[in-house]
Amino acid sequence: MIRVVLPFHLRNLARMDGEVTLAVPPPVTVRAVLDALENKFPALRGTIRDHGTLKRRPFIRYFACKEDLSLAPMETLLPDEVVNGVEPFLVVGAMAGG
What we know:
Elements: E1 2-5, H1 8-14, E2 20-22, H2 30-40, E3 60-64, E4 67-68, H3 80-83, E5 89-93
Parallel strand pairs: 1-5
Antiparallel strand pairs: 1-2, 3-4, 3-5
């Protein structure tokens, strides 16, 4: 089971508390995790990725094992620690401003 941690505003939108666990068949990629997340919580469609292009929304970042995967290809395989549920896949709301 893949553990996914979402920022507060997305947890509220999905009407969930804490982290979510997802069954993701291999190969476990960034795309596969996001597809499973959006299938389980349809309210999240279009919030993490654009509806049409499925590209990452601005100010959303992805992390696995302290590694920023935000700019990595969507077919990037996730580390074994994430696949085995030891470490979570993080979806983080980035901040900007001055």
